[in-house]
Specification:
With 291 residues, the protein is mainly beta. The chain folds into two domains: 3-209, no CATH class; 224-290, Immunoglobulin-like, CATH 2.60.40. Helix content is 5%, strand content 52%. The strands form five sheets. Strands 8-7-10-5-12-13 form a six-stranded antiparallel sheet. Strands 3, 6, 9, 11 and 14 form a five-stranded antiparallel sheet that branches. The longest helix has 8 residues, at 212-219. The model is unreliable at 7-18 (pLDDT under 50).
């Protein structure tokens, strides 16, 4: 049985080729746009019966400041027939990637997904059982690995993006002789596969720390400011204000309101004060002026 590189053609469905809080954000090298049904993704498989072989797709991210953990890997699904097992691995690289492959990669997280045609043309999350801690400057490498199909006509193609690629994606596929790390762009060019889109969707869903002041600005509004009598607090994103504290600029607590959306400050002297809101997601602080 011959093994070669192919494009996955969606039209046919055939395989022929200060105090801080945390919020979630996505790190992406393709803008998160896709997956596209009309653009080909690269895979190794059998030309005889469209059966998928083992493929590993790779992307590396250098962790920026304020990112403290990886919650999940978001991966594109181009096309699936039958049932295909996907193993998603997270590694910490000892140096620049792909030069660190394979001995410089330390596995720090793994998750397995079983995909079917219900996942076609979507982005799915491989969520780790617990957030995986990372530090600023870490080189985190993601591997999306599909198992070789044991059933004829089981196929899988990773989803590709129409966005701008800001970092190369790589592939290894031992059955096709790709035992060293190569960019998808190079492999496609070497095999005259002109319709391959190399921008595979492998994103990181991460926890980002934000200051209590930024957390307030993102999630609450207060009015009027300056205030004479009652200071109103509105939740922008549905966060509940479990407790509202009013403090002076030294941090001395002057007023406490439980499960409220306003606080009466008419008895305060003229000046600048702090407001602190406790939510289930963390604390938010800001300043207001009492007239």
């Amino acid at each position: 049985m011959s093994k070669k590189l192919h494009l996955l053609v969606a039209a046919l469905g055939l395989f022929i080729g200060s105090s801080v809080n945390a919020q979630q954000t996505t790190l992406s090298q393709t803008g998160g746009v896709g997956p596209h049904a009309t653009e080909g993704s690269l895979s190794c498989g059998s030309s005889a019966n469209a059966q998928i072989s083992e493929n590993s797709y790779w992307r590396a991210y250098t962790i920026p400041a304020n990112i403290v953990a990886v919650d999940a890997v978001k991966m594109g699904v181009r096309n699936v027939t039958g049932s295909v097992s996907i193993e998603v691995n997270l590694y910490n690289s000892s140096g620049a990637f792909p030069g660190s492959y394979p001995n410089g990669l330390t596995k720090i997280g793994t998750q397995t997904l079983n995909l079917s045609s219900a996942n076609n043309q979507s982005v799915v999350d491989a969520t780790f059982s617990a957030p995986v801690p990372v530090s600023t400057g870490d080189i985190i490498v993601v591997e999306v690995k599909n198992a070789a199909a044991t059933n004829p006509n089981n196929t899988y193609g990773i989803g590709v993006s129409g966005g701008s690629e800001t970092g190369s994606a790589y592939i290894t596929a031992p059955t096709c002789g790709l035992t060293t790390m190569e960019t998808i762009t190079k492999v496609a060019a070497d095999n005259n596969l002109s319709n391959v889109n190399p921008k595979v969707i492998i994103d990181l869903l991460v926890n980002e720390t934000v200051s209590t002041q930024d957390f307030f600005a993102q999630n609450f509004s207060m009015y009027p400011n300056p205030v004479t009598d009652v200071l109103n607090v509105d939740s922008v994103n549905g966060l509940n204000a479990n407790e509202i504290r009013v403090m002076d600029l030294t941090g001395k607590v002057l007023k406490v309101q439980k499960d409220a959306s306003s606080v009466n400050v008419s008895d305060l002297a003229t000046g600048t004060y702090l407001i602190e809101i406790t939510t289930n997601e963390g604390k938010a602080t800001s300043k207001f002026i009492k007239k």
